[in-house]
Amino acid sequence: MFHVIQYRPLRLITQASLSSMCFKLMLSRPIAFAQIWKSWFSSCSVAGNKNIILMGPPGAGKTTVGRIVGQKLDCPVIDIDDDVLETTWNMSVSEKLQDVGNEQFLEEEGKALLKFSASGSVISLTGSNPMHSAGMQHMKTNGIVVYLDVPTTVIMSRLKSMKVDRIVGQSPGVSLKDILQFRKQFYRRWYDIRVLCGGDTAEIVAEKVLDAVKRYQNSELETFISTRSSRSGRSMEKDSRKYFSDVVTEGLAPDGGLFVPERGLPKFTAGEWQSLIEATYIERAQVILESCIHPADIPASNMAEIIGTAYGENFTCSKIAPVRHLAGNQFLLELFHGPTASFKDFALQMVPHIFAYCIPRSCNYLVLVATSGDTGSAVLDGFSRLHDRDKQRIAVMNFFPEDGVSPIQKSQMLGCQKENAWSVGVKSDFDFCQTAIKQIFTNSDYTGFLTVEYGTALAAANSINWARLLPQIVYHASAYLDLVHQDIISFGSPVDVCIPTGNFGNILAALYAKMMGIPIRKCICASNENNILTDFIRTGVYDLRARKLIPTSSPAVDILKSSNLERYLHLIANEDGQLVTQLYNQLENQGHFQLRKDLLDKLQQDLVAGWCSEEDCLAAIHSVYSTTGYILDTHTAVAKVVADRLQDRTCPIIISSTAHYSKFAPAILRALRIAEINQNPLSQLHLLSSYSPLPPVHWGLLETLKKKGNEDHQVCAADMSMLMSHIETLIQNHFM
């Protein structure tokens, strides 16, 4: 058995075991990270030390990076190739491979790993070690596995310059590229931490490894705050820190604000973004979400499973969120290929599984959601796809304006009802439904009663929940990378985005993608006749007085109170929670507020806005179909009209196509100037299909409408006590 005895051990420890003096030093003094590590190691016990295990394809630089990391930490460095395999076999690795062949080589390599033992060391694996399950399991018992993720094109170039023409698994008819792609599944299975390498030097990669391990060990640094919390209050609340798992389950902050990460979002370098150009959508999602969610909340392997479940088979397009050229410099980001035909599927095929993973097993949860149309069916569908064991402890209640959604949207919501997912129509508008849910969450007497009486806690699935926003960042970043991949632009060239906006969540996700390093120049906010956001962005005045909601053919943006705007205001106000509280108290009590000029100037650096009438919306649908054969839905048409007016044509503009036109068939048929419209939703879709449109009628919507689902639903008055009564009834029926 191989055992390394060291003079100065590496100790990877949890934050809880650090002395408070060391912790304060790390937070308050700008000392190089490697120096801090050395100060930890010199005072640590030899017992229980973990290894840093570097894993990646041949040519990833594991050996060189390992030496640099070991040097910075002043600890032993072990290269499995040189120090273990060749010593054991008494021959070179290439000679052994030639001698025994691929399969036997992997077995012999695995046996050597099983006999190997070390602690407090930096270990560089071979490119094929991860293909031996028992060997890797043995290594992980005393190590943190760091995956050096280098793009395949870079690896191919490096191996060519190194004159490497054969690796384990290669045989006649199998290319080197195919082998590298095949191996990725094994790397993804075993790593704890991923480090994006791109074309970085070994020195830079080594620093990234140290930073990544530091982050891995210090989950306590990734906390969340309320948009309404004061800076002085935060320092007094160290014992009530909120982590990702907490904000997923709680949804709304206790003070009525929204949760945001205290240290903001991570920023990728240009090289790191470029390393994702060749990646699939699922691969991009994994990388971005890993950077935003600490592995202590969701480990990488579980994250991969959640993303694979969400996007693997539920989307009709293999590209998940394809970018299609429309005309001129305009491109459509198609966000309707999910099971319920809207952009809400991107979050709501994933969030239920995140939620089920994060919540404690000791309590039942009722998820409340308010919808202006698309969210309802997406929530119901997403939570109905949970494992049966999770359905028993998680139920969903969806409130929607009974007369404020399209007939197809209502049929879809009712058709998506399952044993743990139900809808209630409310005789009011979306703003009432959303405000009611916020009031229920902040009513501690009522939520406490539900917990004590029924053992049930409440949670939110609207975009007030932080977990809803993260998957939306992915598709905005992915759209830009797709334009680079298609050679439309080179990386670094700016784009504008135009997004139909109601609750401000989708456009906020684009702003977050910009903060993370995607070169978005302007975010164009597109409103319909409910143009309160357009007025606000232009003037800095948010004024609900004398405004009444106008029902339109784009109901997802028929919103006057934009919840996620609060997160953006908190951001541009430099996290001044007291100011945000003041603004929203004024909005609640007086119906309006006005931004200071300096904040309005900041806002207008990011955002421009316009609005579209009903007449212009339908005219745009007709015009685009006449010239291209492509049918826009009503929300996308709103964005198209605004983009035409506000773009300066100096760069590409990506228009978010947020829903499939099938959901709004009556409006589409009117726009196409079809005189006789059958009132049956299924007949309307068949009529649209007869035009052989692009894209085709949405299959999932057709299937839902064909089913004789549970069309029954409760309808209640716009009364808080009535809503709370419905909540108690559902809890009694499902959980008791």
TrEMBL record:
Q: Which residues carry this modification: N6-(pyridoxal phosphate)lysine?
A: K344
Pfam families on file = SKI, Thr_synth_N
**Could you give a GO molecular-function term held by this entry?**
pyridoxal phosphate binding
Cofactors required? pyridoxal 5'-phosphate
Tell whether Plastid is among the UniProt keywords.
no
Tell me which residues make up the Threonine synthase N-terminal domain. 238-311
The record's SUPFAM superfamilies line, in alphabetical order, gives: P-loop containing nucleoside triphosphate hydrolases, Tryptophan synthase beta subunit-like PLP-dependent enzymes
Q: Give the UniProt entry's GO cellular component terms.
A: cytoplasm
Q: Name the pathway.
A: Amino-acid biosynthesis
Say if the entry is tagged with keyword Amino-acid biosynthesis: yes
Q: Which residues form a coiled coil?
A: none
PROSITE patterns in UniProt: DEHYDRATASE_SER_THR
Q: Which GO terms describe its biological process?
A: amino acid biosynthetic process
Keywords assigned by UniProt, alphabetized: Amino-acid biosynthesis, Pyridoxal phosphate
Family note: Belongs to the threonine synthase family.
Q: What is this protein called?
A: THNS1 protein
- Organism encoding this protein: Psophia crepitans (common trumpeter)
